[in-house]
Design goal:
The protein has a single domain, classed as Up-down Bundle (Ferritin), CATH 1.20.1260.10. Helix 1 packs antiparallel against helix 3 and helix 2 runs parallel beside helix 5. By secondary structure, the protein is mostly helical. Helices cover about 80% and strands about 0% of the residues. The structure holds MU-OXO-diiron. The site of MU-OXO-diiron has 7 residues, from helix 1, helix 2 and helix 3.
């Protein structure tokens, strides 16, 4: 059984991963509406990954004999200025998620809950990878630019990242 404090934070993380999935789905839809098919596909795949992050937490909580909760998920932003705005938002969001994972890890350590601390290490590594991935995309946007054919090139570049990950 998990300690109450730890369970509350894990359930909050479940909700945050669910929100992340919806946010990236909304971004995918925005990209699709602008004809940015590479980015739309990449973001839809990333939305599905976030659902897996949620389900992994969900299964862990239930395995401990505690109850994982399905709660209301806040509506994400659906409108963006341009593709750079989309990826700036993602990068900021992922840094926020990393902060939450770190808080959780610190809590489990102070509560002597080493099993959950150990479980969370997967998320610590994942956040490191995701921050690097999105920073890399932002760097490409900066180098190539979004004017003229730049937007098309960036969209193709983002589609390639998906292939590299698969
Ligand atoms: Fe579940 Fe993108 O972190």
């Amino acid at each position: 059984m998990l300690k109450k404090k730890v369970l509350k934070k894990l359930n909050e993380q479940i909700n945050l991963e669910h929100y992340s999935s919806n946010l990236y789905l909304a971004m995918s839809s925005w990209c699709q509406s602008k004809g940015l098919e590479g980015s739309a596909t990449f973001l839809a795949a990333h939305s599905a990954e976030e659902l897996q992050h949620m389900q992994k937490l969900f299964a862990y909580v239930n395995e401990t004999g505690s109850q994982a909760l399905v709660a209301e998920v806040a509506a994400p932003e659906n409108t963006f200025k341009d593709l750079k705005d989309v990826f700036e938002n993602i990068y900021e969001h992922e840094k926020f998620v990393t902060g939450k994972i770190n808080e959780l890890a610190a809590l489990t350590m102070s509560e002597n809950d080493y099993a959950t601390f150990n479980f969370l290490q997967w998320y610590v590594a994942e956040q490191h990878e995701e921050e690097a991935l999105f920073k890399g995309i932002l760097d490409k946007i900066e180098i190539i630019g979004l004017d003229g054919r730049g937007l098309h090139m960036v969209d193709k570049e983002i589609a390639n990242r998906l292939r590299q990950q698969a």
